[in-house]
Amino acid sequence: MGVWGQYSITAVGSANTYIQNFNTFAGTSGTVPANWAWSYTDYNPGGYYNRTSNYSNQNSTYALRESSSSTDIAFGSKNDGSPYTLTFSVKNNTGGIITGFEIGWNVEQYSASTNATPVAFSYRLNAGAYDVVNAT
Fold it and tell me: DSSP class of residue 16?
C-alpha cells in the first residue's frame, strides 16, 4: 500500500459523520479517495467498467457502473482471486476516549457469472491484532 492519510476525529458525537460513496473514483490510483488505501496495485487498464459493455477478462482495478451515463460508481476489481484489502484509516484527535464508532456499507456485485462477492470487515486498535466482525 502506498502512503495515505487518516480521517481525523476531532470531536465526540454526531459531528464526525463520514460518508464515502466512491462516485468520484475513476478506476485510477490517483482517484482513490483520501484516507483509503487499496492493497491491489494493478490499475492497468483500470478506468471505468460498464456492466453493459463487453466482458473483460483482464485483471485490474475498476470503477464499476451500470453504463457510461451512470453516476453511481462502485469500487471494484477483477483479480487473480487472492484476498486484497481496501483500508479506511481513522485517527482519534479528541484527546479523549471514543466510546462508539459506527460504519456501514453497500456491496454491489458486478459479475458475468453467479460467483459470490465475498466481503469481510475487520478492525484493529493502536496497531494491535485485527479483529474480524461477523457481518452480513
Answer: G
- The 10s digit of each residue's pLDDT in 23-45 is 999 999 999 988 888 888 888 88
Hey, where are the domains in the chain? 1-136
**Tens digit of each residue's pLDDT (9 = 90 or more) over 77-108:** 877 777 788 888 888 888 888 777 777 777 77
In Å, the largest CA–CA distance within the chain is: 52
pTM for the model: 0.76
SS3 content of the chain, % helix, strand, coil (to 5): 5, 25, 70
Give yes or no for a contact between 18 and 10, defined as CB atoms under 8 angstroms apart: no
Of residues 112, 108, 115, 109, the one with CA closest to residue 53: 112
Do the beta carbons of residue 94 and residue 9 sit within 8 Å?
yes
- For residue 68, what is the DSSP state? T
Residue 25 has which C-alpha cell?
Answer: 473514483
Q: Taking the CA atoms of the chain, what radius of gyration do you get in angstroms?
A: 16
d(CA 8, CA 125): 15
Using the 8-state DSSP alphabet, how is residue 79 labeled? -
